[in-house]
Design brief:
single chain; mainly alpha; 5 helices
Length: 150
Amino acid sequence: MTFGRLLAPAVRITIAATLAGSGYIHARLYVDEYRFIHVVGPLFLLQASVSFAVAVLLLFGMPSLLKLAAAGVALGALGGFAASRTVGVFGFTEHGLQPAPQALLSILAETGTLLLLAIWQAIVTRQHRAARPPLRAPVWDQATTRTPPK
């Protein structure tokens, strides 16, 4: 079995699931609490929408643009989380892992997305290197009595 036959679809589906999970958490937070928060509420809705859209598209394939989009969505959500606990986001701040358990679950989903993308890239890179034919020394290098052509 090659990576492309069994592992690639499983990793792609798992990445889509982690993105959809993050999107679901942000959508629920928007509906339950955040829709009334100026600017931040719509950002939660935007994050949920983009997460769901990228997750659905990943089910059909994984071109480089979608991998970048998935990483961007996850990094954006993690960056927003960090900013909301430090400097604030448009005047909105939170503390610790509140709201619980959504904050922790969101961190896990987004970190999982990034880790799976890194694993995917490492495996694909390794396969491409393994598939290349080994480099052979030039003919003039093999014979010690010859000099390289000019």
